[in-house]
Amino acid sequence: MQRVRTGCRNCRRRHKKCDELRPVCTSCSKKGETCQWPLKGDVIRINTGDSVKKSNGSPENAKTPSTVHSEVAGSVGSEVASTSPVHGEYNYDDYDVLHNVFRDYMFLNAFTTNPLEPFYLEAEALEVTHSLDNFVTEPPPPDLPQDEKIRLLNRYISEVAPWLDMFDHRNQFTSRLPLMVKERALLYSILTIASRQQEKFDTSAKERTFRLYEQCLTHLLPKVKQVPSMDIVSSCVILCCFEMMASNSPSPAWRKHLEGCAELFKTAEVNGFSGELKSAVFWCFARMDISFAIAGRMRTVIPCERWLPAGSSVYDARSLFHKNVTWNEACDNFANYSVFLMSRVLNLIFAPSLEPKEFESEWLRLFNELSLWWDERPGEMRPVEFQNPSNEVPFPKILYCVSPAISGNQLFHTSAILLMSNRPRVDVSDSGILTRPLIWHAKQIVGISLTNDHHGCLINSLQPLYVAGTLLSHPSEHKIIVDLLYAIEKRTGWSMSWRAHDLKRYWGLLDR
């Protein structure tokens, strides 16, 4: 079916001719509907063509799509305005279209380029009008002025990359920038997320962000049938980070972006121990994965086994994180180990069904591993200075010297709270760190964020602060946590206030 290329959104959706009367066309006027006009320009249409094959020639031998993948296939024909210059307002329906196209790109790329993952999609779900092979748009607009591009790249380096590089002493999301910008899709993903971060301080940047996102997809989509390079995988992870930066809840769109990245990781053979850029990209993704899992009260998108090299058991992971490395690498490894242990805690407590004995066995393993993590931390992962709470400030001051120590310890305390809150009836030593009161762990979490100013770590504290806040009862403590979340959002541009709102609801403050 040929899509209508002119007219308002409603007429295009119905494939009806629109008389294009502005501001309200005749059809919408008769139906009493809001008449919305798309952004000017051609449209991008996606078709997998012959690239998605039946495995061994028949659907019976192919992998059947899951519910999520079926939903993805059904929206493969999504449209997105091209990058031709536009004057005027965009609306967030247009953003939804871009999100859907990006999500579909990741799934389709994974399913069409990984011979080990044959995937069968119903032809009806893939009915579209043009294939990517024949994808043509109007000429893109001129690049950003050089001074504006420099400002955005500088913002990326100072405000965005610290979170991406938080557990990577090589700072690969920053140090590789001169090489990164040669790949246009990656360059535009960097500019897009930098522009989004600036939006919190300058609302006039919103339309520019949208245009940059369009540009990024324009460079990304033609590569849908190519095995993804690490530049492309990095671009997709940055765009997932873009989604997280602006999210006000664990939305389905955020989840599907994570699932799309997870499929790309399969194709590109990316895990936490792939080395250098692959490892850096993976652990950046892993932090998003556990953040979503905590907020959504669910398991991580990537199962714990796939965080490790092929053939490795989660029960052998400790030796992988303890391998003989430099002190910088040791800090990175211990911080990443805390992320891994958090994922195991989440996957245990949110497992759909486990026999009591199985739950107890895994719980005890995690209790012991977390206890060892705390005891075996290298010196750089321990506080530089510590000050107990006072009558004026109910939280301790805990200063760390490196970002892996800041967030690694904060994640440890979060894991401790979640694990001990779900303690089965088993005997454990009462003298260890994990058996301290849950409120003690909660106050450590808040104290770490109050003391350490590293922007990446403040961003990463969103879910730990929420978990801590659910355990604290005094109004003065509530005020400090809420003010802290608002201050982090104001300082970093990352969405934090939604968790402050969730805490107010949890405390019953919204009912008063």
From TrEMBL:
<dbReference type="GO" id="GO:0000976">
    <property type="term" value="F:transcription cis-regulatory region binding"/>
</dbReference>
<dbReference type="Pfam" id="PF00172">
    <property type="entry name" value="Zn_clus"/>
</dbReference>
<dbReference type="GO" id="GO:0045944">
    <property type="term" value="P:positive regulation of transcription by RNA polymerase II"/>
</dbReference>
<protein>
    <recommendedName>
        <fullName>Zn(2)-C6 fungal-type domain-containing protein</fullName>
    </recommendedName>
</protein>
<dbReference type="InterPro" id="IPR036864">
    <property type="entry name" value="Zn2-C6_fun-type_DNA-bd_sf"/>
</dbReference>
<dbReference type="InterPro" id="IPR021858">
    <property type="entry name" value="Fun_TF"/>
</dbReference>
<dbReference type="GO" id="GO:0000981">
    <property type="term" value="F:DNA-binding transcription factor activity, RNA polymerase II-specific"/>
</dbReference>
<dbReference type="GO" id="GO:0008270">
    <property type="term" value="F:zinc ion binding"/>
</dbReference>
<dbReference type="InterPro" id="IPR001138">
    <property type="entry name" value="Zn2Cys6_DnaBD"/>
</dbReference>
<dbReference type="Pfam" id="PF11951">
    <property type="entry name" value="Fungal_trans_2"/>
</dbReference>
<keyword id="KW-0539">Nucleus</keyword>
<dbReference type="GO" id="GO:0005634">
    <property type="term" value="C:nucleus"/>
</dbReference>
<feature type="domain" description="Zn(2)-C6 fungal-type">
    <location>
        <begin position="7"/>
        <end position="37"/>
    </location>
</feature>
<feature type="region of interest" description="Disordered">
    <location>
        <begin position="49"/>
        <end position="68"/>
    </location>
</feature>
